[in-house]
Amino acid sequence: MISPRLARRIATVHKWLGLIVAFQLVIWTGTGLFFVAFHITDIRGEHLVHPATDAPTMNADNLAFTSADALKAVAEDRPMEVILRPLGGEPVYEVRGEIGTFLVSAATGEVIDIDEPRARALAQARWIEPDAVLTATFKASAPKESGLSGSVWIVRFKGEGNPTLYVSAVNGKVSAPRTDLWRTYDFLWQLHLMDWGMNENFNTPWMLAAAILALSTVLFGIALLVHRFTRGLIRKEAP
Fold first, then answer.
1. 113, 156, 221, 227: least surrounded by Cβ within 10 Å?
2. pTM as predicted
3. Are 172 and 122 in contact, with CB atoms under 8 Å apart?
4. Residue 170: how many other CB atoms lie within 10 Å
5. E strands within 117-170?
6. Which residues contact 222 (CB under 8 A, 6 or more apart)?
7. What's the CA gap between 223 and 127, in Å, rounded?
8. Binning pLDDT at 50, 70 and 90, where does residue 231 land?
9. Is the pLDDT of residue 48 over 80?
10. pLDDT recorded at residue 236
């Protein structure tokens, strides 16, 4: 049994620990409730786009130019690597050079520019609903939520929650869909992890300190609970 003096000290420590960590405990509980209230597929917006397996396959019949031709097309940019991949169902060579990445059509041998009409077409091809593009805006630096790097086209669609796809102006790759629900999830995940920078680091010093304080609060609370139960039993058994 814990002595009354020690119990008072534990109660004091428990109270102050609770006050210190209470705000983060509320955040953990509230954000956790949000995470379980919404299905992850809805948060990711998977219902808004065609599955990746449904993407148009590359038309190999249009391979009129070789990778060597593609390298020659951007020779002045000192190319270092070339890969063949589909872009909107058509074969293209993605050439990576010292000063950037370029796309060369395997059908015409021309360098491809990801302009607004092409960005709209690439985004719309990924979207479930037809004729749903509202706007396409160029941005020199990709927002973090896009998961892309370099310049992008921000393509916004009809529908609730500001649904958006990002299309790389460098290589034409299309991001995962982003909605206000996803943005809310991302913000709450940042609070949940106590990582106010990248939103991805689970092993932050703040997280470790808060977890230790929370566990200590619980353990001190258990000690007080045991003390009060055992004290009551001892009093009942006393003659």
1. 113
2. 0.80
3. yes
4. 19
5. 133-139, 152-157, 164-168
6. none
7. 57
8. low
9. yes
10. 47
Give the largest CA-CA distance in the chain: 101
Tokens of 10: 């534990």
Order the strands of the 111-112 sheet from edge to edge.
Answer: 79-87, 90-97, 100-105, 111-112
Q: Which residues contact 125 (CB under 8 A, 6 or more apart)?
A: 50, 56, 88
Residue the block writes with tokens 């609903």: 129
**Element holding 204 (H helix, E strand):** none
Rama region for 59: left / alpha / beta (φ>0; ψ in -120 to 50; rest): beta
Q: To 5 degrees, how large is the angle CA 72–CA 77–CA 81?
A: 70
Is the Cβ–Cβ distance between 163 and 134 less than 8 Å? no
For the stretch 142-167, pLDDT in tens is: 999 999 999 999 999 999 999 999 99
Long-range contacts, stretch 97-106, CB < 8 angstroms, 24+ apart: 100/170, 101/170, 101/171, 102/73, 102/74, 102/77, 103/171, 103/172, 104/65, 104/69, 104/70, 104/73, 104/74, 105/65, 106/62, 106/63, 106/64, 106/65, 106/70
At which residue do the structure tokens 């003096």 appear? 5
202 vs 205: CA distance, rounded Å = 9
Alpha carbon distance, N-terminus to C-terminus of the chain:
18
d(CA 56, CA 121): 13
Q: Kindly state the tokens that stand for 149.
A: 């790097």
Which amino acid, residue 165? Answer: L
Residues 180 and 161 sit within 8 Å (Cβ to Cβ): yes
Q: Which amino acid is at 206?
A: W
